[in-house]
Amino acid sequence: MSRPCKCRLVSTLPDNYIFTPSEGENSCCIILSLDEYETIKLMDYEGLDQEECAKRMLLSRSSVQAIYTSARKKLSTAIVEARKLVISGGNITTLDQTKKYELKAKGENTMRIAVTYEDGQIFQHFGHTENFKVYDVVDNKIVDSKVINTNGTGHGALATLLNGLDVDVLICGGIGGGAQMALSEAGIKLYGGVFGDADSAVEAFINGELEYNPNVMCSHHHHEEGHSCGSHSCGHHSCH
Question: What is the rounded (10 degree) CA torsion for 194, 195, 198, 201?
Answer without folding.
Answer: -50
